[in-house]
Amino acid sequence: MDEQQILQRMHALVDEEHHLRTRRSSAVLVAQPQHERLTDLEQMLDECWDLLRRRRALRDAGMNPDDAHAAPISHVEYYLHWWG
């Protein structure tokens, strides 16, 4: 996935997340599947951010950004929690 594709994916995920959060904040009851979907969206966004940062770091170091690979979500969530 190149940067443009990552950013497009992130925009789509954010749009869906905003839609679900708006429904929740407007007193519409959020069913468990919707709550789980929000959790999934947050994790997918974290993965996208991680991949985007990895690509940019490689490019800034004069390396090929296409060599970047997404880390498993367990790693992403761990270091976001650890450093966040």
From TrEMBL:
Superkingdom classification of source: Bacteria
Full protein name: DUF2630 family protein
Organism: Planotetraspora thailandica
Highest classification ranks of the organism: Bacteria, Bacillati, Actinomycetota, Actinomycetes, Streptosporangiales
